[in-house]
Amino acid sequence: MISAKEEKNVDPASYLVSSVDRAMHLLLTLAEMPDSGVTELAEATKNTKSLTFRLLFTLERRGLVRKDPDRRTYTLGYRALLLGDQSRRQSRLITTAEPILADLSDTTRENALLLVREDLNHICIAMRASPHPLRIFAAIGRLGPLHAGGGPKVLLAHAPAEVQERVISGALEAFTEMSISDADALVATLKDIRAKGHVVSIGELDPDIFSIAAPVRDHSGVVIAALGINGPTARLTETSLDQFRAAVLANADRLSGMLGWQGKTDVHPD
Amino acid sequence: MISAKEEKNVDPASYLVSSVDRAMHLLLTLAEMPDSGVTELAEATKNTKSLTFRLLFTLERRGLVRKDPDRRTYTLGYRALLLGDQSRRQSRLITTAEPILADLSDTTRENALLLVREDLNHICIAMRASPHPLRIFAAIGRLGPLHAGGGPKVLLAHAPAEVQERVISGALEAFTEMSISDADALVATLKDIRAKGHVVSIGELDPDIFSIAAPVRDHSGVVIAALGINGPTARLTETSLDQFRAAVLANADRLSGMLGWQGKTDVHPD
DNA sequence: TTTCTTGTTTCGCTGGCCGAAACGACGTTT
DNA sequence: AAACGTCGTTTCGGCCAGCGAAACAAGAAA
């Protein structure tokens, strides 16, 4: 154990600039808890008050953070809008998916989502909200696990073997009694997803939520995203399920086509 | 001049964490020049290559920056989407303005914009693009001057006296021959804007662009934003001007009303 | 009033950050 | 195919920027 460092004096985080890393952690924390004060944020990020104050001061000068009029609490600044909007505009995947998400949401009347994988997490990079007053809360840019939920499992099913292994061998947190927390069961589910080309997930992350998702491929056939919908299980009937599944599959294939994929959904060899 | 520091050894930027500041500068620079390499970004930000590399490394770990597949260039990461979307959601001004921008853009068929002032700049915090193929390029989160353009001048006209003085006494950069670069002329224009309650600006920032804007007030009557449209001057005729002006004024007042303003557009005493 | 709790400021130490320069891997040119 | 240029990456040691602790100020709550 101690000898781990002996081989080479190479720190896995050697190039990390810690003050910048802590500033970004603070910024992302603030995004999730707006209208917080210095002390509150210091506790949430486990930093000292003085550091938190200095970081907020620095971020404020760049417009990424803003003091509320009462001068006591902080919120994200308007300059953060630039980062989000430019990131969106610069992604071909997102811009071509947006009209498709609109169609999918219009025909199913449920939330339509586009997810990608980032290391061992999924991240929602685009969405269109359901018109229903009762709808699932979802937010762009949030991270989540790969082993639970429809879209996440699609991503995992088509991820490199090494990624799948790391997830399967890790702790498979159970969110509900429907969650898959058994490694073998997960492997079987992933195989099923590759065979069927889509997934229907019910009550895995929350007992009252369903989701349906299918893979999105780029020009070379590699799965780069998952397109799907989610909504309250109350709206999931036998007939609506068929409609939903058809809409998700059609739109996922349409999106793949727009990204240059010319093939047909072939059964992935496992 | 030299004695400015003598009074108190207080550095105006004393709380600034320089590495964080440079990291944010880098991030905002990357937002404006995607697909850049380390060397390119180092030059653009006037930092060393090593620092730029370390900052990118740090930002990448947080998902704010992403390496392109070819492993040579960098782009904004998907985590930046979170910052933008949360900033948008958390702003009551933006969320209530969005449907109004849609209406304004639909009726005028031009770009509809919402601007606020941030120190001596204006910043576009929401927009809805014109349906026309020929339209002005505008981006959310970009900064610009206060003395040129319709919306910016509305903001300046209603800014605190101290802000107006700082702008007027500064260098009034001329972008076209229509730009107002004379201090007295600017003061007169601002007075006119306060009297009329709106502004029509033609060819001030670009010879081929017009813009029409009006103030937006909060519950206390303070002007907190400017709502307006812009488009190519080719589409500005006598009849369309009247329609545009009416639409801008009506929607600006409607937005003010939704923000709790109960008064009527009164002439500001100058 | 007193007593918390907040945000802000100071201060001295030190270890993390920084620039310079070398390195290695491409791609391009001759 | 060899030489060159350019890019991203890595190393290194000095030194000062950034850090935590603690005092301070300013309100809010009791």
How would you characterize the overall build of this protein?
The structure is a homodimer of 270-residue chains. In chain A, helix 2 (38-45) crosses helix 3 (49-61). In chain A, the strands form two sheets. Chain A has a six-stranded antiparallel beta sheet with strand order 5-4-3-8-7-6, with helices on both faces. Chain A has a two-stranded antiparallel ribbon with strand order 1-2. Residues 1-11 and 265-270 of chain A have low confidence and may be disordered. Helix content of chain A is 43%, strand content 17%. Chain A starts with 17 loop residues before the first helix and ends in a 12-residue tail after the last helix. Chain A is α+β, with helices and mostly antiparallel strands and 270 residues long. Chain A has helices at residues 18-32, 38-45, 49-61, 79-89, 92-108, 150-157, 161-169, 183-196, 238-258; strands at 65-67, 74-76, 111-118, 121-128, 143-144, 199-202, 209-217, 223-232. Chains A and B meet through helix 1, helix 3 and helix 4 of A and helix 1, helix 3 and helix 4 of B. Chain A binds a DNA duplex (30 and 30 nucleotides) through residues 14-15, 17-19, 37-39, 48-51, 53-54, 71-72.
- Helical content of chain A (DSSP H or I, runs of 4+): 40-55%
Number of strands of chain A: 8
**N-to-C span of chain A:** 37 Å
Could you say which structural class the secondary elements and strand pairing of chain A correspond to?
alpha+beta
Average pLDDT reading of chain A: 91
Poorly predicted parts of chain A:
1-11, 265-270
Report the portion of residues of chain A in β strands. Answer: 15-25%
**Oligomer description:** homodimer
